[in-house]
Amino acid sequence: MAARRAYLAFIRAGSESLHRRLIAEDPARNWDCCVSWYVPPLSEQLAEYYSEGGDNKLEGFLEFQRHCPQLSDYRFVMLLDDDVYLEPGALSRFFELCERHGTWLAQPAQRWRTNNTLKVLVRNPVCVLRRVSFVEVMAPCFSAAALEELLPTFSWTKSTWGVDWAWGCLAQDRHALYVVDAIPLAHTRRGDPDGGAFYRKLRAMGVDAAEELRRVRERFPAYVGPRTLPRGHVYRRGIPPFIAGVLWRVFEHLKWMVRLRKQALRQWQRIRQGRGG
Q1: What is the pLDDT of residues 116-147, one digit of tens each?
Q2: Separation between Cα atoms, residue 196 and residue 14, nearest integer Å
Q3: Which of 83, 101, 162, 246 is at a distance of 20 to 30 A from 57, taking alpha carbons?
Q4: Where would I find the H helices in the chain?
Q5: pTM exceeds 0.85
Q6: Cα 43 from chain centroid?
Q7: Fold of the domain built from segment(s) 7-276
């Protein structure tokens, strides 16, 4: 089957996957969808492709890629976790912005009040696109050129931890990476490395995610790590450049509130668990 649209969203999906909602709320979507099941396949015919196999999202994509010769027809390919939600039509607008600005590797920004891991990925309202040194494995969007270059890294770790670290290092000083602040996402579930099903599976396989991350980081000692870079941003229309150049830094500094909120939520969770015990 030939590619129907210019872009592809690959979603690693369980029984509660949000892909159904993303498809239903974007009736004029400019993206095809591949659902890669990590549970026994469910009976539905919403997406253009269905796939299964692999122990994680990146392995699942490699399995799909082996059986999808038309993958090269797509100009951008996005790999989404199934608990990522974007507002109606936002995924189509995200692809349009990537096309318009010729991004190599990008991702939507994370909302301020969502489950996030790194403050550099949190939305900066001054920017349309913000140049960064790191794009997370949760929702990366690859240009065709980026996918071809980075595909060999997809099998570097079993947990996927560290693969996005490698992307940042391999792109450093060669390709621009962007967070698309104009299109924020919600991460609807909190990661649970201690008790989550995926991490229990890894432990049963003898895989230590933190150790995998450590080994990847050791391969790239010169990498600067996740950060917003000082130049290369695309600012929102109507904000004078000299003001925008100050404001984006102000909002980056204000992101300490994101970490404070995260710490407070963790403390509250511990208190609730203590009461439950």
Answers
A1: 779 999 999 999 999 999 999 999 999 999 99
A2: 13
A3: 101
A4: 19-24, 57-66, 90-101, 144-150, 163-171, 197-204, 209-219, 241-254, 256-276
A5: yes
A6: 27
A7: Spore Coat Polysaccharide Biosynthesis Protein SpsA; Chain A (3.90.550)
